[in-house]
Amino acid sequence: MVSKEDSSSAATLSGGGVLALPLTIDGVNPGDPLQLIPPGASTTGAILRIPPWTPSTIAGRNDLLEIWVLEPGATAEVLFYSNPFPVPIAFPSSITLPAQYLQRAGQIQLKYRVTLGDNGNEDSSVPQRFTVSPPVVVNLLAPKFTVESSHNGEFEIRGYLNCRVVPRIWVRVLLHIPAQPGRFNVNDEFILDWEGFRSLNGTEPIPGTAGRFSKFLTQAEANSPTGFIFVVDSDKYIQYIEPITFGSAQAFYTLYRNGVPLGRSRTDTVKIDRKVSGEGLCDANFDPYP
User: Fold this and answer.
1) What is d(CA 157, CA 149) in angstroms, rounded to the nearest whole number?
2) CA–CA–CA angle 109, 112, 114 (5° rounding)
3) How does pLDDT run across 141-188, given as a tens digit for each residue?
4) What is the DSSP letter of 126?
5) Which is it for strands 260-265 and 138-140: parallel, antiparallel or unpaired?
6) Do residues 239 and 206 touch, judged by C-beta distance below 8 A?
7) Among 113, 132, 239, 248, which is most buried by a count of CB atoms within 10 Å?
8) Residue 256 domain-assigned?
9) How far apart are CA 267 and CA 202, in angstroms?
């Protein structure tokens, strides 16, 4: 469905309505609702295919093809391609959208216009949206599942979470993010990916437990010489943690700056055991260790 804003934009651009056929991008599945551009395009560029139009025929005239791109998060379109095609028209087999426009994750918008040399008529395509998901380099230190130690204000790395740990896992789960000088800035977006598993070693994923939790880094977190604590709060417990009765969870994080992914961490795995011998399962309603 074309929004009123898109229709207005295309009609204004062409001066004569929306007539041109949709363009396609190599590697994009027509049935994919996200219209995901292949990740490799962020390095080599995306290959566009412009459908042949009814060309001009008067010798000495040119048909002008123009293509606009609106990057994820941008407010202004950029005319990245403008090329005249002299009569007799030889249609372009493909056109490359440069990789520089495919560095930010999110939705990208493309549209094109053909201006006929014979009569000056303009045919414009409806703006089309595609999803950009650049490959992210694994270049950050793994998070570490952590619990409060017996010393006030201190934490200890823990590869095993059971009913006795503090804080209780239905209250919050803590992950220590190691300090990495020069990598973090204030207002960087930090996104943690989490998933639960039936096994103790991160296999047999539990349906519905894959989640993505985000925060923006404070100045103190970005500059801390010891790293910072990422908290998976109690509002995540029922969906993402409670289904793990005797199994494991895995987590990794991705760092974004101004919408551009700067890197991804390695993955950490923690064993989770909510079984209490002869008692059942510990949770917020049944804590055998008050």
Assistant:
1) 9
2) 175
3) 999 999 987 655 577 888 999 998 999 999 999 999 999 999 999 999
4) P
5) parallel
6) no
7) 248
8) yes
9) 10
